Amino acid sequence: MRPPASAGSASPAPASPAPASAGSATRRRLSATAVAGALALAPFVLGPYAVGTLSRILVFALLVLSVNLLTGLTGLPTLGQSAYFGVGAYTAAIVATRITDLGPLQLLIAAAVSALVAAGTGWLAVRARGVVFLMLTLAIGEIVYSAAVNWKSLTNGSDGMSGIPPVVPLPGMPALELDGLVYFYVLAVFLLLYAAVSRLGSTSFALALRGIRDNEPRMRAIGYPTQRYALTVYCGAGALAGAAGALWVSVQRFVSPGDAGFEIAALALLAVVIGGSGSMRGACAGAALVWLTRDYLGNLEAVAGRGPLLLGLLFVVAVYTLPRGLAGVRIPHRLTRKRTA
Length: 341
Description:
Layout: H1 5-10, H2 17-45, H3 48-73, H4 81-98, H5 103-125, H6 130-150, H7 152-155, H8 179-200, H9 204-221, H10 226-252, H11 262-275, H12 280-295, H13 307-321
């Protein structure tokens, strides 16, 4: 029996989107490779100040990625990630000055301690949603900031911790004292953690988190333990923020209570909004834009002392002109299809 005519005409249709998606994936890989190559070449063409700025941007981007895990992926806007960033920074500083100057060990211990603190505080925070969750995370951040100021025997109070030895990337290697060498260490860790978070985004766990973000009651109705999922990602985001804090100590060799303060938390959330909530590439782009606006444009002679004003204007412009953030910007490609009569 001959197949219906509709069957023959319908069979080629599903195959048409495949080349487009394959081409899009190829473009993403090529752009990611180009960005990684440009970052690797940066110390050879930039001065020490610019290289140090890039190192700080990469560290801040990791913190922004941790905020994006909660805000963009799970729908939990947070102002408390600076708390775990500060916990990781102080932990790494204590490990570096009292135990070892080995960088990977500092990273692991800082991430573990931050995850434990996140577990101890997150069990309460994840029971709330929306504005209540936002206020709870803000309170957690303020508690950690106050502890950093008042626990002088451990943190040296408002004077901060200085005299931190330079980081050693691997056993047997010399300490990294030059800005360019520290940058390569930070870049290597950033790429590893970025790849890990990117891998997480394609798992069933991430799909469940998106379901919680979009319709939590339905997720609960079909049997998902939404609070357990939320607490798990909360602890993971805390560990990522703690690792960023450890890298911050490797770059700055100094840590103070301000590193756990509200300003850092607000900047990280602002970077997620500007970059595009839910997008990893957008989060990194937003982190770079926010940091450069505050530390570079804000220090120009024409606008000296008006960095916060520039950040406010940047936020307003991004909200009204880029509703999907920087991740929603699409560069038009050259049209290759020929018009048919």
